[in-house]
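Good morning C.,

I know you're traveling, so I'll keep this short. The sequence:
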Amino acid sequence: MKLNFEKNKSEYIPLLKKLWLDCFEEKSEAVDLFFNRCLGFTSIYTASIDNKPVAMLYLVHSTLNGKKAHYLCCAATSLDYRNLGIMGRLIEYAMSDSRKNGDVYSLLFPANERLYGYYERFGYKPLCTARKAVFTREELIRFAENNQSKRTSVNSYNYEELQRLCLKDNFLLQNNNFISFASDYYSLYDCKTVKSDKCFALFEEENGTAKVFYSIYDSFFTLAEMLIKNSNAKRFVFTCKPDDKLYKNSINEKYGMIKSLKNNEKIPENTYIGITLS
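The tokens, ready to paste straight into the viewer:
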């Protein structure tokens, strides 16, 4: 069989959607949303046989500490072509091409623990981290009561600026369109969003607990007030940047992988990957 490695073949999109649905437990509306909203800042890499894609991966363009980077996601191989080394070759092809285009870092979030070992074979290191912090509703209310930013706009958003204000450095900076897409994407899986010009958060609620799996803000007081207004949860579990001093009683944990695409480029410590796709 002759295997071809290709980039941004738009004529493959109907077949790529099918491959996505075959390989992941996704809703078709979510897949359509990705292709409708993300292709302007995403590169598609495919391995094909006889003009049919049998493996795929996507690089969502972003920056890390002002240098070009990407988030590698949705890597999948058709069931009939697995365990043949195709995905490994596709990753190497995509990394070679992105390196030529000036990317300095590649980041990804393995779907399970076993895949950490798989991606290590291609030079990725488990150096992305996050913190898990827990607040009771009463604790969050006390933060909200200290909020001095009473004027907020729910019609004007600059997520890139909020990321810079909140996360400072060593984080994957995603563009406004990707953050907006993520809000709509996760809403399809019954997740909720709170957003204003001063904060943004994604969370899911179950059994009295709100899991806030992504948040950015100019003041945690503002975020606390918005969460209290939009959630009845008794307990709030935050996944956050590892060096956020606010979350003193928290636990650092492994949260993704990073690879330097330049031999002389040092990998930043405790890099925060931010939003990932399910």
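Safe travels,
E.
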